Every structure is written in structure tokens, then in C-alpha cells.
Amino acid sequence: MKRSDTKIIALILAAVMALSITGCGNNNATSMPEEKPSVYPFVNTLKEPEDNAMIEVEAPALTEQVKQKAEQVNPEIVGWLQVPGTDIDQPVVQTYNNTKYMRLNYEGKYSFQGCYWVDYECTVGTRETESRNTIIYGHNTAVSQDDPNGLDFAQLLRFADEEFAASHPYIFFSTGEEDMVWEVFAAMYTDTKFRYIDMIDQKIDTLVSEGKARSEFQYDVEVDPINDKILTLSTCTAKYGYVGGEARARFVVMARLVEPDAELKPTVGLEKNASVKAPQL
């Protein structure tokens, strides 16, 4: 082969190699390897949780239990109260006054811790005949320490905890005539000057506005003071001391009756009430 031919072949090979390099990616690329990043982007390999709406709370069927207990145990049993996240889950009685069951259980037998009873002036029945405000009383058996892990209505104090309140939006109080679900909209420490016990079928607008003003949290729950039925759970609290051996204040949880076909979600939006109306003692 002639020297000139060899030179031509060498030039052709060099041109081919140059073209193959410039054809890979950006023309400004360098043959030097890229530096590895000091911080790598986070890649979540887990499946994102689906929307909360797909988790629906199932309301318990309590009506038959009320009927059975009223027939077999005590005819003054008128309902059943269940508060999720607590041990509050038993029959509720009603009689001709608000003192008979203070030291009796729902069977009518002596019990220092008593039971849960509906205010004697309230009407208990269907959602149509139920009083505008149904009041249920119970003892705070750990009142001296206000221990939310105590017995009975001492556990209502758990609603003073923001995390608990947000994750327990409903109370179930049913009668022998209808199962009912109640959505919490207020949880408060209050003085007895707030006469919610007198607001059974009147002044419901005041009941709702005062309840919200005194609540530890502002709930993302709309309440219609004209048409909504209210459930009020009431107990004693020693947070503000005693007078004559009696706790000076009350801890109260209020809820509104929801429609029978309402979707029940596992949480409720709320935030700390920055201007809570404190008890005046």
C-alpha cells in the first residue's frame, strides 16, 4: 500500500471517531465525568395514603340493647351512651328527679360512683321528639386529681386534649326508639353561672354561642341553633378548687345530632381557642 493511501485511511478513521463523540448528548458536554451530587433528592417508595374520606366511622346499633335492659333490668333505663376512646359504654337512666341515681347504678343498686342519668325535665325518644338539649350527668370519680384515666365521666376530660378531641368527633347516644349519632362541637371548663341545665327547650341559641365561646377548641362544625338538637354531657371538675366540699366548676362536652344518613369521618378539624371564655369563680 502506498504511503499516500495509508494517510488517507487514517484521516477517514479520525473523522468517524470525532462524529461519534459529538453525537452523544449535549455539544457542550465534556469528556470529564460529572461530579456526584452531595444531596440526593428524596424518593418516597411508599404508597401515598389515600384521602381520609375513604375511612368511614360505623355507628353502633344500640336500640335493641336499650329495650332489652329496660325490660329485663330496670324500666327507668331510657338510653345507651357510648363515647369512643373511653370506657363510657353503658345504659342511661331517667327518673322523676336528678338525685335518685347519684349513688345508684343503672340497675338501681347502691354504687358510690352512681351511673349516667338524663335530666328529669328532658324528653327522650326519637330525633323528632327528643328535647332540643338532652343533658346527661355523671360523676367524675377522679375529681380530686381530674385524672382523665379515672372511672366514668372523669374520662370526658380527655376531650381537653387536642389530639384526642381531633380524633374522636362523635358520641353515640341512642334511645329505645332510635339510634342516634352526635357530633362534638364544644368541650369546656365552665362555671355554674352558665345555666345550660335550664336550656332544655329554650334559649338554644345562647346555649350554642356560650358553648362555643367557652370551648377549649374551635371545632370545624357548623351548628344550627334553630333546628339542631344538642347533647350535653356534664360532670364536675376540681380544676378551679372547691366550695363547701363541692367542686366549683364543671367540665362539659356538647354535640349536635347528625342526619341518619350522614357520612361519619374519623377526624374533625379544630384549633386551640385563643380567646376562650374562662370560668368566672
> By helix and strand content, what is the structural category?
alpha+beta
Supply the number of structural domains. Answer: 1
What is the name of the CATH class? Mainly Beta
What is the typical, i.e. mean, pLDDT?
Answer: 85
Number of helices in the DSSP assignment: 4
Q: Could you give a short description of this structure?
A:
The protein is α+β, with helices and mostly antiparallel strands. The chain has one domain: Sortase, Chain: A (Beta Barrel).
Write the layout of secondary structure elements.
Blueprint: H1 3-22, H2 63-72, E1 77-82, E2 89-93, E3 116-118, E4 133-137, H3 162-167, E5 170-175, E6 181-191, H4 204-214, E7 217-219, E8 230-243, E9 246-257, E10 270-272
Parallel strand pairs: 2-3, 4-8
Antiparallel strand pairs: 1-2, 1-5, 3-4, 5-6, 6-9, 7-10, 8-9
Features:
two-stranded antiparallel sheet; Sortase, Chain: A; 17% helix; alpha+beta; 10 strands; 8-stranded mixed barrel; 281 residues
Describe the fold and architecture.
It contains 4 helices and 10 strands, in the order H-H-E-E-E-E-H-E-E-H-E-E-E-E. The chain has an 8-stranded mixed beta barrel. With 281 residues, it is α+β, with helices and mostly antiparallel strands. The chain has helices at residues 3-22, 63-72, 162-167, 204-214; strands at residues 77-82, 89-93, 116-118, 133-137, 170-175, 181-191, 217-219, 230-243, 246-257, 270-272. The longest helix has 20 residues, at 3-22.
